[in-house]
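Posting for a labmate who doesn't have an account.
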Amino acid sequence: MTQDESAPDTEASLVDEPEVRQALAEADRASVASVVAEHPSSPLAWAELADLADSEGTPISAFAFAAVAVDLAREQLTASGWSPGAPVPWSDEPNRAYLRALDAQRRAAMQLGLDDRAARLADELAAADAEAPARIASEFTPTQLMPIVGTAGLFEASTGTEAHTGEPIEEPHAADAAGED
């Protein structure tokens, strides 16, 4: 190798966290914070908590949780040789925690009126992986979740309407069905 040649770029990657993925898969919405408490250095756990806060309409919490996830992910990426602005491929599943966290922080910044910050985060996300924004929007955006609506009172008889019981309705005669009298 000459001085003009450089070593080929290696793609940065976050640490794979199968135990965190498993804990999140088994967790319900109420226990995601406990997964974070058990794995406080996990960008994936914090990204999941940020998405949950976003889906619950709490942008301040979503912003804060996403910021922690982004910082932890940047630390891991830097340790693997990454420098800001370098690609972080979506195709490497562990990297999705960083990309999702960037997007969660961007969404929260928009909701909070931090337009310049939201634009910088959008640029950083696109620079990391150009296909990531579309993938996140189609696969992970928590605001696409359908709200759960309580069913109390939905299937009860309304007031003012009486239920009628009595003789069953007779089957129509063939002449009636044909329109003949």
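Reply:
Got it, the structure tokens are right above this. The radius of gyration is 27 Å.
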